Amino acid sequence: MRGTIPGLGHRRAWIAAVSCWLAATAIAQPADLLESFTPPAGWTTPFPAHRVIGNLYAVGFEDLGVFLITSDAGHILINTGLADSAAPIRENVESLGFQLEDVRILLCMQAHFDHTAALAEIKALTGAEMWGTAKDTRILEDGGFSDPHFGGRVTFAPIQVDRQLSDGDLIELGDIRLTVHDHPGHTEGSSSYSMTVTENGKDYRVVIANMGTINPGKRLLVDPTYPGVAEDFAKTYREQKAMDVDVWVAAHGSQYGLLEKYQPGQAYDPGTFVDPDGFLAEVERLETIYLEQLAAERATSGRD
Length: 304
Ligand SMILES: [Zn+2]
Fold this sequence. Notes:
Blueprint: E1 4-5, H1 10-25, H2 30-33, E2 50-53, E3 56-58, E4 67-69, E5 75-78, H3 86-95, E6 103-107, H4 113-116, H5 119-126, E7 129-133, H6 134-141, E8 163-165, E9 170-173, E10 176-182, E11 191-199, E12 202-209, H7 229-241, E13 247-250, H8 253-256, H9 258-261, H10 276-301
Parallel strand pairs: 1-9, 5-6, 6-7, 7-8, 12-13
Antiparallel strand pairs: 2-3, 3-4, 4-5, 9-10, 10-11, 11-12
Helix pairs in contact: 1-5, 7-10
The structure holds zinc ion (ZN).
């Protein structure tokens, strides 16, 4: 379904943010549960904020993608990093001349802790509303506890979802027109976002893509991690291969070749992240891994 989402009530968002923050502080901190977990260096390595194209900026870490889409009516922030990432994200946003307090809508691409852990804190800081896909809402609101793969092993500060998003929804804020794409599999509610950006009279189709990677230990066919997970991944690869993409970024810099495409300090050029062939190749590479895992599960189970 395609729907248009109007503006939002800022005061209501702020009240929700405060009550959510109070609820979150009463719950065991994720660090308690993650004592033995050492995040990959790239998840915390700062990376200079930079303009990807048009009003899309990267404000995250070397290998955790956090994206800011700006407008005169406020901004959209997609993803965070780990639990202590609010301060470095703020520094990155301010280094571009924007204010974190002007973020009006928070989105995420997948309800996994490495992309969600500072959402509750940023919501409290900004009064922004959290908009999430229907199927990731439960996991966002219980801080990852009911995640069928990581639940009980890793958690993050829960965040209340103010508005549920559906496939094809158009998110409008100022002159931002951002389309929601359900790309499930990595999580049940994983999503990508797309928009058209015009630079020097040329239109660029831009996708902030949640890639169909399969976490180690996830099961597709035999005792599947969640019912329908294999079909979900298949839908994601099929739809992503059919997308018209000029510029793409993803939840991890390593997925879209950030370090190969961009050197810190490099002058802005709308062509820097233009890479339609790279996008298709990466989707096809992930689909091959998926098909190999399906075949391996079939072979060991005797199913066909
Ligand atoms: Zn993930």
